[in-house]
Sequence to fold (472 residues):
Amino acid sequence: MLSKNIKTLNKHHNDMSIKVFNTLTRKKELLKPLNGNNINLFVCGPTVYDFSHIGHAKTYVQFDVIVRYLRYKGFEVFYLQNITDIDDKIIKRGNEQGKNPMTIARKFEKEYLSDMKELGITSIDKYARATDYIKPIIKQIKTLFDKGFAYETSDGVYFEIDKFKDYGKLCHQPLDKIKEGARVSVNKEKKNPSDFSLWKKAKINEPSWDSPWGKGRPGWHIEDTAITETEFGPQYDLHGGGSDLIFPHHESEIAQMEASSGKKPFVKYWMHTAFLNIKKEKMSKSVGNFTTIREALRKWDEKTYRFYYASTHYRTPLDYSNEAVNKVKQGLERINEFIRKVKIANGKKKNEIEKLIGETLDVFEKHMDNDFDMPQAIASVYDFIRAVNKLELSKQNGKAIIGFFEKIDSVLGVMTFEDLEVPSEIQILAEKRQKAREKKDWATADKMRDKLKTKGYYIDDTSKGPVVKKIS
Ligand SMILES: [Zn+2]
Fold:
């Protein structure tokens, strides 16, 4: 629950100008949704054949912060994510383990959702499974056929990229270059090696669905456009994902949707998160530097781990290391200690904290508005802490600061306010003890400490000040 302080703070800011770096134009552009304040956003979800790795955590935490910030600014965001539950990898894993591929898909979907919960990802409105959209997928492929963009071979249906002149506009490569770079196709029936699959005809023992081209399953790219056409229509505001998806995945999405609807742009803004590297190398199973979210969360508490990604710019490649996460952990501890200290502030002097809060929010938002510059925005929070640490705070000051931190944390989702749940009766005892100590009245201070103890609380005198804690 947000405190009263936040409501007053909300009046402070109503400028909704945000700039986003658009991969399509390679420019920072003013974010202007197609329809008023409503933003339809789609981010590519996981292929559920194994535990998700830490590169996924980076992308999904960073989009979670981005969406939370868009909502904080007053945009009505509908955040849709797909779950790829039919794919070569899932079938392969099923065969390896002698299991039904659908059993594998459901198991790892569950694990994925559990990871997302641990990471505090709360912004997603809907998960859409590919297999729940087989009808719209078939319909879209039919349209592509009717309009002359698709053809059938003995193993499936393909999109003919020569028919779509804009192919390459997202990855900024001319069509000829793309065709040059393509590997020779195993399938000699393909008109061009770069033509991509829309429908794959079923081999023996594969999960399959009926279609005008016989039993089979969708290709890699078509589920996204069938899902978004169903949920959003042929055009929408924002599409996100890891930068490894720009080509061929997102490029092919544009081809599918713009070819079938005849409308462009299919998506107004494309946002891509930069790579996560380990020891300067791209994470991969063959290099042996592959780490799952599950493994990382055994090492780090969820909020520290989330903050690691929330405090990095989404377009800056990140080199994962224990030292880097440790540094972030210390930073977060500083914030949490400050919150605890402020909570029991009891000085006499009233400072002009509101002004400092307003100024800090301005700086925080200025940086977030600039293509979600999370590191700079967070630096403003540390500047605030440094400034406040020099002051003696009144109780009202403390409350205003907590309200401010709750507001910032509605975007970041990393701070700890639990101590706020300390009942006021306990809070009063803690304050009396603190006052007594300041007067060097040790007898009263000890009495208050004992009273707290009988009620199940104790005071931890940290280097940054006293903190009320529950006896566990
Ligand atoms: Zn996708």
The two ends are 24 Å apart (CA to CA). Residues 44, 224, 249 surround zinc ion (CB under 6 Å).
